[in-house]
């Protein structure tokens, strides 16, 4: 992966991490109810789960590429169409709401870790998303394993930092999402639509 492709990937990953999803909502909820330190267990479980999903998507793509490079072109266009559809759904989605005023029963770190991990790996939409998203950046002439390390590592760092920020600011973010969440969803949806339209056209 060259530096220009990595920068585009980094920007796309930042947009993905900021968009509403089960793990972001968990980080927000657990940050509000249990505090940033305990929410770190939830976030770490989710990041580990995402790395596993990225591995499944990447090496599934690799198996197809061994059969024919034509599959990469097919995956790019199908993936682009899926990202546009996902962006439209997100654009139309209602704002995320969360009640942070309730007191919480104390939870163990391992319990929060498992919840974050399961939220990442049990959502089939996550695997579909990465299967659509990653082919836009795969270079069939370079090591797939090295590209996996770069892509998974970049995503893990961005997701960890983003969710930590969300957890630390949970009590301020939640009311804002209830008020301005629709515009936020539209901005994130617009990012996905732009990615879906533009990336399949890259060489």
UniProtKB/TrEMBL annotation:
It holds the Pfam family LysE. It is found in: Cell membrane. The chain crosses the membrane at residues 6-28, 40-63, 69-91, 144-162, 183-201. It is a multi-pass membrane protein. Keywords: Cell membrane, Membrane, Transmembrane, Transmembrane helix. This is Threonine/homoserine/homoserine lactone efflux protein. One of its GO terms (molecular function) is amino acid transmembrane transporter activity. InterPro entries: LeuE-type. GO terms for cellular component: plasma membrane. It comes from the Bacteria.
């Amino acid at each position: 992966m060259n530096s220009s492709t990595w920068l585009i990937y980094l920007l796309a990953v930042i947009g993905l991490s900021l968009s509403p999803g089960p793990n972001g909502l968990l980080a927000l909820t657990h940050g509000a109810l249990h505090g940033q330190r305990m929410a770190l267990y939830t976030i770490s479980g989710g990041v580990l789960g995402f790395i596993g999903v990225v591995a499944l998507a990447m090496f599934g793509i690799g198996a197809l590429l061994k059969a024919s490079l034509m599959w990469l072109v097919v995956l790019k266009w199908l993936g682009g169409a899926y990202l546009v559809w996902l962006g439209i759904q997100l654009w139309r989605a209602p704002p995320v709401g969360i009640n942070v005023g309730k007191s919480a029963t104390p939870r163990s770190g391992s319990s929060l870790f498992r919840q974050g991990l399961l939220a990442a790996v049990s959502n089939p939409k996550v695997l579909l998303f990465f299967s659509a998203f990653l082919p836009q950046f795969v270079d069939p002439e370079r090591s797939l394993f090295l590209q996996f390390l770069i892509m998974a590592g970049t995503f893990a760092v961005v997701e960890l930092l983003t969710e930590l920020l969300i957890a630390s600011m949970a009590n301020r973010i939640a009311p804002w999402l209830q008020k301005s969440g629709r515009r936020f969803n539209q901005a994130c949806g617009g990012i996905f639509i732009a990615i879906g339209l533009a990336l399949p056209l890259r060489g």
